Amino acid sequence: MGTTVLVDGENVRRSLWPNIPRDELEDLTARWGEKHGHDARIVWEGAETADDTIAREVGELDPPVWVVTSDRGLRDRIGDRAARIIGGGSFARELRNG
């Protein structure tokens, strides 16, 4: 698989109204990843915040790594370590429009 794409789950889920249900976001993201040949991974809050997980994994994963988020703080933390940053709303609309 080509590019790893880390998706800020809550950020993307809440970027459209009505919000995208978690299971729908997981399904749409998996299909998007398959369609484009990417390893798309949704990151949810867990033992650490999604932001912390994404920031850490961007530094640990083999490039290229893309991040999907509209969170400016997270974008600042990642800096230029991500090959591409995609806005959460843009990504959500692409998923919904298929």
Structure keywords:
single chain; about 100 residues; alpha/beta; four-stranded parallel β-sheet; 5 helices; 4 strands; about 50% helix; globular
**Spatial order of strands in the largest sheet:** 2-1-3-4
Strand content: 15-25%
- Report the order of strands and helices: EHHEHEHEH
The total beta strand count reads 4
Number of helices: 5
Spans where pLDDT lies below 50 across 5 or more residues: none
What would your notes on this structure say?
- The chain has 98 residues and is α/β, with parallel strands linked by helices.
- The protein has one domain (4-66, 77-97).
- 49% of the residues lie in helices and 17% in strands.
- It contains 5 helices and 4 strands.
- The chain has helices spanning 9-13, 22-36, 50-60, 72-78, 88-97; strands at residues 4-8, 39-43, 65-68, 84-86.
- A 4-stranded parallel β-sheet has the order 2-1-3-4.
- The protein is globular and about 30 Å long.
- It starts with a strand and ends with a helix.
In short:
The protein is α/β, with parallel strands linked by helices and 98 residues long. 49% of the residues lie in helices and 17% in strands.
Layout of helices and strands:
Layout: E1 4-8, H1 9-13, H2 22-36, E2 39-43, H3 50-60, E3 65-68, H4 72-78, E4 84-86, H5 88-97
Parallel strand pairs: 1-2, 1-3, 3-4
